[in-house]
Design a protein that fits this description.
Length: about 350
């Protein structure tokens, strides 16, 4: 499908940084707690939870609030009733959840079982207590173009117009994620958080269930998708070289150059509720596993630039061997704060 719409970028406006944490109530009466040091985006379309509430931290990284309705917690009785909190969440997202995949520790993930379980419990408690969590507005990026030899010394950022932070394993990306906030816990998304994000997008009308579960071509960067880009850079050779977009670049579909990596946030067309590139561009590492195959447990979500939008839709997953050895040009990560 040829999408010829051109999106005009309007400079975002921000509130002063909060000098202490406070509850923010949007114009619809929905609330969220904003932590000290964060600024609220006051640009129309970005200041309400139903449209995708955007905040910025002191490092200029941008985050979107994923709301989890109070009403879903019918079994959980407290913030430490972890088993039932997860049970209620899984019931809520069951139309988006993947069969056979669970948020459980496995050898090679880069944490001990105790560390993993503690992190998961902290996430569950936070989501229950705060009725949601933050995710990075963009795929995590870097200031410099990445290569297989790049290592993990680049500073990870959730900002527009960055090179995707690819060539990174699940343990490496989890360690980078943990460094992205000084006053909150940073982490890769657990599988349940990815599913909750899709459910939030569906509930708020950001995308249809078909665009989430069946075919994400209309809003993702895929091999078979074509659309115009007026911002950022693009690579037609798997990220070896990037070209600056000076006016308008028409991303082709299929053919010899259907596979194109974009810098982060290149076009609003590839966003939902102010969250960019969740579908396509590059796979994103998560903290889940395939429970019936202990040798094939590292999970990536969301599809990638060299796949088709119906085969690698946003709710898809891919598992690929011993995670300590998986470093690809089409795999990066997204971060949650809780």
């Amino acid at each position: 499908m040829d999408n010829t719409a051109i999106y005009i970028s309007i400079e975002d406006r921000w509130s002063p940084a909060y000098d202490k944490g406070a509850t923010y109530r949007d114009k619809n009466g929905e609330t969220v707690f904003i932590d000290e040091g964060f600024s609220l985006c006051i640009t129309p379309g970005k200041s309400t939870i139903s449209e995708g509430l955007v905040v910025k931290d002191s490092n200029q990284n941008e985050w979107v609030w994923i709301q989890v309705p109070t009403s879903i917690f019918v079994s959980a009785k407290s913030s430490e009733d972890y088993e039932n909190i997860e049970k209620d969440m899984r019931e809520y997202v069951k139309e988006h959840e993947r069969e056979g995949f669970v948020d459980e520790w496995y050898d090679g993930i880069g944490m001990t079982k105790v560390q993993y379980d503690e992190l998961k419990e902290k996430m569950l408690k936070s989501v229950y207590s705060n009725r949601g969590f933050w995710i990075s507005r963009y795929e995590i990026g870097a200031n410099t173009k990445r290569a297989s030899s790049s290592g993990v010394t680049d500073i990870p950022v959730s900002q527009k117009n960055m090179y995707v932070y690819n060539y990174v394993t699940i343990p490496q990306s989890q360690n980078l994620a943990s460094q992205m906030s000084s006053n909150k816990t940073g982490s890769l998304l657990f599988g349940i958080q990815w599913d909750l994000t899709l459910k939030y997008i569906e509930d708020k009308g950001g995308k249809t269930k078909n665009e989430l579960n069946t075919d994400s071509t209309t809003w993702g960067n895929y091999f078979n998708a074509t659309f115009n880009v007026t911002n950022g850079k693009y690579s037609e050779d798997m990220g070896f070289t990037y070209n600056e977009i000076s006016t308008t670049y028409k991303k082709p579909a299929l053919g010899s150059f259907g596979s194109v990596i974009l810098t982060t946030g290149a076009t609003k067309r590839n966003s939902a509720l102010n969250i960019y590139d969740l579908a396509g561009n590059i796979w994103e590492n998560t903290l889940e596993k395939r429970y019936h195959n202990q040798q094939d447990v590292g999970i990536f979500r969301g599809g990638h630039y060299d796949g088709y939008g119906d085969g690698y839709r946003v709710n898809s997953y891919f598992n690929n061997g011993p995670v300590l050895n998986v470093r690809h040009n089409d795999t990066g990560f997204r971060v949650t704060l809780f």
